[in-house]
Amino acid sequence: MSTTLAPAPLSTADAQLLVDAAHEAAAAAGVPVSVTVLDAGGHLLAFRRDDRAVLIAGETSTRKAYTALQLNAPTADLVDAVQPGAPFHTLPTALDRPLLFIAGGIPVRRDGRLIGALGIGGGAPEQDHGFGVEALAKLA
């Protein structure tokens, strides 16, 4: 009988590293953002909003992280799936929380397993996604 160990959960230190790395990437590009990190259960581990970011950026980053976590996929990959007639067209009304299908939400995985999600809001969707990818590279 083989035993598979679960990967280490996303710690608050990991979450803070992701927040700091995403903010560094955004600051280097001159973009004010909000960053949210959730654990695998959807609980908030870390959050930071640049004072120059619009207030809605905080809600946006949280919804992007939640969407990436619930669907276990980068939100950038889901945009086409929610167009009329596409597989996820009615999904936002089927869950308790509204989802957000704009790039900037990225699942966080360890050993191939989902351990949390990162959400970034404030820049253009492609920028937010890029900041997230840069942040995840620092988690390794």
TrEMBL record:
This is Heme-binding protein. InterPro entries: GlcG_carb_metab_protein, PduO/GlcC-like, PduO/GlcC-like_sf. It holds the Pfam family HbpS-like.
